[in-house]
Amino acid sequence: MSEKQTGTPGFGFATLAVRAGQHRTAEAEHAEPIFPTSSYVFENAAAAAARFSGAEPGNIYSRFTNPTVRTFEERLAALEGGECCVATASGMSAIYACCAGLLKSGDHIVSSRSIFGSTTLLFTNYLEKFGIQTSFVALDDLAAWEQAIRPETRLLFVETPSNPLTEVGDIAALAKLAHAQDSLLVVDNCFCTPALQRPLALGADVVIHSATKYLDGQGRCVGGAVVGSKDVVGQGVYGFLRTCGPTMSPFNAWVFLKGLETLEIRMQAHCASAQKLAEWLQEQPQIKAVYYPGLPSHPQHQLASLQQSGFGGIIAFEVAGGQPAAWKLIDATRICSITANLGDTKTTITHPATTTHGRLTPEQRSEAGISDGLVRIAVGLETIDDLIADLAGGL
Length: 395
Ligand SMILES: *Cc1c(COP(=O)(O)O)cnc(C)c1O
Prior knowledge:
By secondary structure, the protein is α/β, with parallel strands linked by helices. The chain folds into two domains: 70-260, 3-Layer(aba) Sandwich (Aspartate Aminotransferase, domain 2); 263-394, Aspartate Aminotransferase, domain 1. It has helices spanning 13-19, 45-53, 67-80, 91-102, 117-127, 142-148, 171-180, 193-196, 232-244, 250-261, 263-282, 301-307, 322-332, 362-367, 384-394; strands at residues 2-3, 84-88, 108-112, 133-137, 153-159, 184-188, 206-210, 224-228, 287-291, 314-319, 337-338, 348-350, 374-378. It has an eight-stranded mixed β-sheet with strand order 1-2-8-7-6-5-3-4, sandwiched between helices. A five-stranded mixed β-sheet has the order 9-10-13-12-11. Helix 5 (117-127) links the parallel strand 3 (108-112) and strand 4 (133-137). Helix 1 (13-19) runs antiparallel to helix 3, helix 3 (67-80) packs parallel to helix 10 (250-261) and helix 4 (91-102) packs across helix 9 (232-244). It binds pyridoxal-5'-phosphate. Residues 90-92, 116, 119, 159, 163, 188, 190, 210, 212-213, 222, 224 line the site of pyridoxal-5'-phosphate (PLP).
C-alpha cells in the first residue's frame, strides 16, 4: 500500500505519469529499478520489532511491501487523485479485495447489470456464498438504483463506460445516492483510465483497475489496483491484501508503471481512432447499431461529454444476421487479433456472447443487452485506415 506522494499538487497529469512515486536509490539509477526480493533485512532485532509493530515504516515482506510495487501504487494514486492505492495480482482480485476487505456477511451490494462477466459471477457465485447479496439494476436508471437500495446496502458498484455496450453511468448522481445510505460508490475505471475520467473527483469513494488493460497498454501482464482514501483503501483493502495475499509481482508493477508514462498520449490516440471507426461503422448497411459514447446518437453522449475528457477506445456494434454473421466478420479480418483482451496497442475483436459473457445464462445475457450479433472492438494504435479497410473486407 502506498500513500500519494506529498508535494506534487500543481503538476500536470503527464508529469505525474512520468515522475510520481520514484524514489531514487544510492545507485543513482535513472529508470525505476525492479526489486525481485521476497523479504528485507533489518539492522538488528530491535529494528525488526519496530517494523513489525508498525512503529517504524518500511519494508518487511513483499506480500505487502515492495519498492517497485510501491512506485506503481504512488504513481496511480497521484493520477487518480487518491490518497492511497493497493496493487493486486489482477483486476478481479482488486474487486474481490475491495469487497472482502470492506464488506461483511449480511451486507448488500447494488450493482449495475452491465459489468464485466467475471464480476457478475464473483457477486452471484462467491460473495453470495458468504452472505453478501447483490441486486442488479440498469446502469442508466437512477430510480432503479434508488429503489434497490436497502438499509443493509453498503456498496454501489458501477463500470462506466460499461463492457461491452459502452453505456455511461452518472458518477456524481450515484455517489449522492450511495452517501445518503452510508454506502460507498466503487467505480471500475478500466475503460477510461484516469487519463479520461477521474471518478474520485466526481464523488466516488473507490476506483478499481484492471491494470491488464490500458495501464499496461501493450498486452503483457495481468494486474489490478484499488484507489481511494486512507480510511477506506488504506485500512480495509490494504488489510485484506496484507493478510490474504493477492499481491502484484514487482516485475509486473514495473511493466505497469512504465505503461503509465505513456498513458495519456496512448489514450488520446485510441480515442481519435475509435471515433473515426465508429463514424465509419455507422454508415455501413450491414451494421444495425453502433455503441460508442463519442457518437451523438449514443443515449448518454451528453453525460459522457461532461464526465469524461475523451470517449475511449472501445466500440461495440451489432451485425445483421446474428452469430453466424458476427463470427464470419471476425474470422475475415486479417489485422485484428481475435482475443477477449482489450486496451492493447494491437486492435482486438471479440464476440461477447460466446466469450467474455459466455458463462452467463441466456436470460442474464439478454438482460445485459448482449445479442448474438454483437461484436466488440478495442481499437489499437495501428493506422486507422488499415483497420477500416480490414473491417470493410470482412463485411
Ligand atoms: C478485464 C476486466 C476486469 C478484470 O481484470 P483482470 O485483470 O482480467 O482480472 C474487470 N473489469 C473490467 C471492466 C475489465 O475489462
